[in-house]
Specification:
Distance between the termini: 41 Å
CATH topology of the domain at 7-38 and 481-504 and 521-743: Rossmann fold
Shape: elongated
Strand order of the largest sheet: 7-16-15-10-14-11-13-12
Number of strands: 16
Helix content: 40-55%
Number of helices: 22
Strand content: 5-15%
Low-confidence stretches: 1-38, 494-499, 502-526, 735-754
CATH architecture of the domain at 7-38 and 481-504 and 521-743: 3-Layer(aba) Sandwich
Structural class: alpha/beta
Largest sheet: 8 strands, mixed
CATH class of the domain at 7-38 and 481-504 and 521-743: Alpha Beta
């Protein structure tokens, strides 16, 4: 032990003359400190870990799966079989709703979903289901009245009918509706499905018939008013025609329009002709021969002018040849005068003819102008009344057409109402089912098997993830930042408790140097061989973990009671002594001493007696079975001695460290007691024993934090009662259990060759 620790001396009560016992100058704040819990780190596990979890819980999973599967099988077998029959209805939307007066047209595809959804709801309506329910007595109204606590059963009978066993579906991308009904009786299921389909078809016909009949009755009531209105509009049209004095004003207006167009054309032509003839008249009225010749009447005048030229030429020849007194001269002169007279007369006649033609053209123009004015006035008069006439005529024709159309519709409705609607028809009638649809035993068993496996596996994985106990060294290293120096395998209760320790021998009284139990290996079936070697491995690991500083004193404790710290201390001390090393085992648990029963020693004296003035060597037991092992029991339980355990133990450790190779101190649990913290401040190392699979890592973490605040040397953690079911890291214990005994014979000796 280091000698530079500050100490102070306390006088043991009852004897002031005895030597002063040194104790630490100050105690750490273990009584008031709050132990901080370690922060767990997030980690991921390999697939092999989850497979190991499933292997660990395989029997529980198998039992749960078998129980669920068998239970579902039994329950499904005891259920009443339910049969389902399906009737298929075809809806042809291209067929017209009527038969007379309508053409087959395909409606828009956009409303197909809405239309079929309407038909599905119509099939499930009370009007369709009630006749079928009443026919097959599908609902017991009196029973429902009792179940519903209704005093008047008639109220239940009048309530809408709902069939829970009815299902109406539509196959995708079709105009088919499948009407399915379930019942314990397969024949009843088929009959009900067909009955609902027939009721649906009949109901659609009744709806159309009632609608047509109602429409016909309404239209017949409107016919009298419409007939009177048609007669009034016809009389108004006839009166209007009489006022206009025409039968068809529209035709008359068309005639006047053509006549006016013709008169306008003639009037325009007459104006042009009159201007032409007026110009000719003004030209000939001047009296010149040339004007008369160019007129339309100057043809004869032009001929006479030619004759006049010839006569004048002949007269000039005769005069020059015969002279003035010659008869030929007189004859030529007479002919010339005659021609001149004819020209003058013809000129006068031409002027008169041009004047007559001009006056005729002027009169014709005036007459056409008057006719155009009269015709235009008549056209304007008829055209002004034609709009009113058209309105009266359209009203009369509309009333007539509406009346005739209404009469036709009423006749068609009467005919169509007597026809069945062929747009909805039975496509496939329902037939009795051979196999029930419920319960589906193979499906139920398969689902129960699958879901029970999923539930069991999920529960196993979740429970494993929620397990906060210490199970394996890797978990201790990850969560507590410390190492596991050893693991002690579980010895099953039927093998024998590790209660009493005795020396093993060879029959000649010589020390064999091995660890043994009171029960022999023959009795235990070699189940403790692994525990013996685990203790030896723990001893070696502790001694080698000092990193050059030899551990002379060692505290073995645990976080909570019942974790095997005393048993570990005892077997660790025996294992160290079996190597011929002087070992001192001190029972530091003054509240519940537990070392002496393992060696069958009395507990009337021990560590507690030192406080009353006794020497510690007087309380030490030297065992004959273990020559190198001395035991210092706790003595009678004493609360007062426990309070001064640190003061009692320090001089013992200082003195014994020079006499023993190793001092092992067993103490109370570290949580809730002050003594183990006092001891931890005095020893060279502390070993924490934890019960694998039961000790919460938070408790061990709190202990480690407290020891770290004391700056105690934590050698490591010992996991007790480990077995291959705790972690996949303990699979080698199965190897120990099956094959480890091959290395030893029944007397515990090594087999030659190993």
């Amino acid at each position: 032990m280091p000698d530079d620790k500050p100490t102070r001396r306390l006088l043991p009560p009852g004897d002031a003359s005895r030597a002063i016992i040194p104790i630490p100058d100050s105690f750490p704040p273990y009584l008031t400190s709050q132990y901080a819990e370690p922060e767990p780190e997030e980690t991921t596990f390999p697939l092999s870990h989850y497979l190991w979890v499933l292997k660990r819980h395989r029997w529980k999973i198998l039992a749960f799966v078998l129980t669920c599967t068998v239970a579902v099988l039994i329950i499904s077998s005891r259920l009443t079989p339910i049969y389902e029959s399906t009737a298929t209805v075809d809806i042809d939307r291209q067929t017209p709703m009527g038969v007379i007066g309508q053409e087959a047209t395909r409606p828009a595809l956009g409303d197909a979903e809405q239309f079929l959804a309407t038909q599905v709801n119509l099939i499930q309506s009370d009007s369709v289901l009630r006749p079928v329910v009443q026919k097959y007595n599908l609902i017991d109204y009196e029973k429902e009245a009792r179940d519903s606590e209704i005093t008047n059963p008639a109220n239940v009978e009048d309530a809408p009918v709902l069939l829970r066993n009815l299902k109406v579906t539509r196959p995708p991308n079709t105009y088919l509706l499948q009407i399915s009904y379930r019942s314990p009786d397969p024949h009843l299921a088929a009959e009900v499905a067909n009955g609902i389909a027939d009721s649906y078809i009949l109901h659609t016909y009744n709806i159309r018939f009632r609608a047509t009949a109602g429409l016909s009755a309404f239209m017949e009531k409107q016919m009298e008013d419409l007939r009177a209105k048609m007669e009034r509009s016809g009389a108004a049209l006839a009166q209007f025609e009489r006022e206009l004095n025409v039968i068809n004003p529209e035709q008359k207006t068309s005639i006047l329009s053509a006549q006016l167009l013709q008169l306008n054309t003639e009037y325009t032509n007459s104006q042009a002709d009159r201007v032409k003839k007026e110009a000719a008249f003004n030209s000939v009225k001047s009296g010149t021969l040339e004007a008369a010749q160019v007129s339309s009447q100057g043809e004869s005048l032009r001929n006479l002018t030619g004759r006049l030229g010839e006569a004048q030429e002949k007269f000039a020849q005769v005069k020059e040849q015969y002279g003035t007194n010659h008869p030929e001269y007189k004859k030529a002169l007479t002919q010339l005068n005659e021609i001149q007279r004819l020209i003058e007369n013809t000129k006068q006649n031409t002027v008169q003819q041009v004047a007559v033609v001009y006056r005729e053209a002027l009169n014709r123009e005036l007459m056409l102008q008057k006719a155009v004015a009269e015709t235009k006035a008549e056209f304007d008069r008829l055209n002004a009344r034609s709009f009113e006439y058209q309105q009266v005529k359209r009203e009369a024709e509309a009333d007539k057409n509406l009346y005739e159309e209404l009469v036709r519709k009423i006749k068609e409705a009467g005919i169509n109402a007597s026809f069945q609607n062929s747009s909805i028809r039975m496509a496939d009638a329902a037939r009795p089912a051979v196999k029930p649809v419920y319960p589906n035993i193979p499906q139920n068993v398969a689902l129960a098997f699958v879901f029970s496996i999923l539930l069991a596996v999920g529960t196993a994985l979740i429970s494993e993830s929620l397990d906060r106990t210490i199970r394996d060294p890797e978990q201790v290293s990850r969560m507590l930042k410390t190492e596991v120096v050893g693991t002690l395998p579980l010895v099953k209760p039927w093998v024998g408790k590790l209660a009493h320790v005795a020396a093993g021998g060879n029959g000649n009284g010589n020390w064999s140097g091995s660890l043994s139990l009171v029960r022999t290996r023959r009795d235990s079936g070699d189940k403790t061989l692994g525990f013996d070697d685990a203790i030896r491995t723990l001893r070696t690991s502790i001694l080698l973990s000092a990193s050059g500083d030899r551990v002379k004193s060692l505290l073995v404790s645990s976080a909570t009671p019942g974790e095997g710290k005393t048993l570990t201390s005892v077997h660790l001390a025996v294992a160290h002594a079996s190597q011929r090393h002087k070992t001192l085992l001190i029972d530091g648990d003054l509240r519940r001493p537990g070392v002496h029963p393992h060696f069958r020693l009395p507990n009337d004296k021990g560590l507690a007696n030192i406080l009353n003035g006794g020497g510690w060597k007087d309380a030490v037991f030297q065992l004959k079975e273990f020559p190198h092992l001395d035991v210092l029991p706790a003595g009678p339980p004493s609360r007062r001695a426990a309070d001064f355990l640190g003061a009692i133990l320090q001089p013992i450790l200082e003195e014994a460290s020079s006499q023993y190779d190793l001092i092992i101190v067993d103490s109370p649990p570290l949580l809730g007691f002050a003594e183990p913290l006092q001891i931890a401040a005095l020893v060279d190392g502390v070993v924490i024993v934890a019960l694998a699979g039961q000790t919460d890592f938070k408790a061990v973490g709190s202990v480690i934090n407290a020891l770290n605040r004391l700056r105690a040397n934590i050698v490591g953690v010992v996991l007790n009662e480990v077995h291959e079911g705790l972690s996949d890291q303990y699979s080698y214990y199965g190897y120990y259990g099956k094959n480890y005994s091959k290395y030893y014979n029944q007397d515990g000796r090594s087999v030659p060759g190993d």
